[in-house]
Amino acid sequence: MAESATLMISVGSYLPERIVTNDELAGFVDTSDAWIRQRTGIAQRHIVAEGEMTSDLARIAAERALDGAGIAADEIDLIIIATSTPDDTFPSTATKVQHQLGATKAIAFDVQAVCAGFVYALDVADAMLSAGRGRRALVIGAESFSKILDWNDRSTCVLFGDGAGAVLLERNDDARGYGVLASKLHADGAHRDILYVDGGPSSSGAVGHVRMEGNKVFRHAVEKLSSVMDEVLQAADMPVTAVDWLVPHQANIRIIEGMQKKMGLPDSQVVKTVHDHANTSAASIPLALAEAVGDGRISDGQILAFEAIGGGLVWGAALVRYGRPA
Ligand code: UT7
């Protein structure tokens, strides 16, 4: 009997033109290229131009994902943008992008799960498409974190960058083992105070800045990510050796390599972009995916493992067999 699943049929991304190197940062914050590289793996980040907004990044990434699959915007039923840096408090950035794309038939909303936003939005979209709420969805991770950084706080401002990535999902009734194979999410609001923004509409009325006790977040990261990775492997009834690529959230090279080691994967099976993009929060996974699909490392039929953790704390993982069955 044919089985249904949500396929991931294409990916697109966009990075702002302006690149800021560690040395440039060291010109106005008390830091150094050596410290940033050694502690995080980051060498540079892209930063939005004056007037460039999260919706602009998201729209271009979405257009590229649509072009890649040869699908028109009015064939999309659902647009979810994972972002913690929306253009405005409301309406959602997703509705703005829906209009700009001409995706006239799509419903649209934002999901706010910070760095875990992409895995959260992917799970929501998969659940909705599985429940028959449309056939095609755009899941977009888009962030302008540079807008919520305290550029005097060296412990956070060196870590983040801006960008967007989008995947196109399609419900298929004869999936033949392709598509979203398993997905698991978690939340624990007890850890709110180790990573948050000190502002918002109902607290201060101001937008606020990122505050983080990085070493505390770090301690949660590998433990929670490896546990949720075990859960998705178990749910999909797959050994870790079935994974072709780990496409992790890109917060810190030491967290990525910690997961790589736990999973027993060689360098040739892990996508690492933190060096060039820094931490782009909800955008980091689809940005990494777009890079590895674009340069031919990832191809149709391969099994991808996604994982991410972010402020909340929230975390999750997903296993996806990429592309469409031949
Ligand atoms: O994506 C969302 C989730 N976020 C994360 O996953 C981030 C997880 N955390 C991390 O990646 C790491 O904890 C950081 C990269 C943020 C920090 O690395 P660390 O090894 O945990 O360093 P630390 O915070 O313990 O700080 C060590 C030292 C401190 O100095 P003292 O107290 O030892 O004298 C800091 O003041 O490094 C100092 N420091 C810096 N020095 C130069 C902190 N930031 C900087 C900086 N440049 N930018």
Q: Can you tell me about this structure?
A:
This protein is 32% helix and 25% strand. The chain is of the alpha/beta class. The chain has two domains: 5-172, Thiolase/Chalcone synthase (Peroxisomal Thiolase, Chain A, domain 1); 179-321, Peroxisomal Thiolase, Chain A, domain 1. It has a five-stranded mixed β-sheet, sandwiched between helices. It has a four-stranded mixed β-sheet with strand order 8-13-12-11, with helices on both faces. A two-stranded antiparallel ribbon has the order 2-3. Helix 4 (93-101) links the parallel strand 4 (78-82) and strand 5 (107-111). It is globular. The two termini are 18 Å apart. The structure holds oxa(dethia)-CoA (UT7). Oxa(dethia)-CoA is lined by residues 31, 35, 39-40, 115, 154-155, 158-159, 214-215, 217-218, 221, 251-252, 255, 279, 309-310.
Fold blueprint:
Layout: E1 5-14, E2 18-21, H1 22-26, H2 33-40, E3 44-47, H3 54-69, E4 78-82, H4 93-101, E5 107-111, H5 117-130, E6 136-144, H6 154-157, E7 162-172, E8 179-187, E9 195-197, E10 210-212, H7 214-235, E11 245-248, H8 253-263, H9 274-277, H10 284-294, E12 303-310, E13 314-321
Helix pairs in contact: 3-4, 7-8
The structure holds oxa(dethia)-CoA (UT7).
Q: Can you name the CATH architecture of the largest domain?
A: 3-Layer(aba) Sandwich
How much is the average pLDDT?
97
CATH topology descriptor of the largest domain: Peroxisomal Thiolase, Chain A, domain 1
Number of strands: 13
Helix content: 25-40%
Low-pLDDT stretches = none
User: How much of the residues is beta strand, in percent?
Assistant: 25-35%
Strand order of the largest sheet: 1-7-6-4-5
Order of helices and strands: EEHHEHEHEHEHEEEEHEHHHEE
CATH-assigned homologous superfamily of the largest domain: Thiolase/Chalcone synthase
**DSSP helix count?**
10
Give me the Rg, rounded: 18 Å
Overall shape: globular
**Small-molecule binders:** oxa(dethia)-CoA
Distance between the termini: 18 Å
Q: The biggest beta sheet, please?
A: 5 strands, mixed
Query: In the residues, how many domains can be counted?
Result: 2
- CATH C-level of the largest domain: Alpha Beta
